Amino acid sequence: MAARTGFATPRRQSGAPEPGSDQEPSRSRCARWAPASPGRDFLPFLIITTNAIKSPQEYAANGPLSLPSGIYLNGIFDFWNRVDFTSMLINSTVISLSVAILSMVLSLLNGFAMGIAGCGEASGYSSSS
Prior knowledge:
Helix content is 57%, strand content 0%. By secondary structure, it is mainly alpha-helical.
């Protein structure tokens, strides 16, 4: 008599395809979309960048999807000064660096504690040869 572990064996739902059958989605079908992904993901940033260097008159006349006829940087300079972007940039940099350093210190302490507890040896990853 086999020992019962108390865990139920997962059963396949009716209508679900068996692994390796023709009904199972293949990787090649999913991989066909991979080459289109980088261009599709970059397109919004390209539109934002081209609209940032258009003059307001050119944007109103030609719309957001047209290419700019020239580079207009006054809108960027006006925005930078109007919202005090320099102080916001410094604030974001300080917060990002402090979070990165704090998480690195916490991970270092966690790794040290796991090393003392012997978690690495139990899983087969010991530092001793």
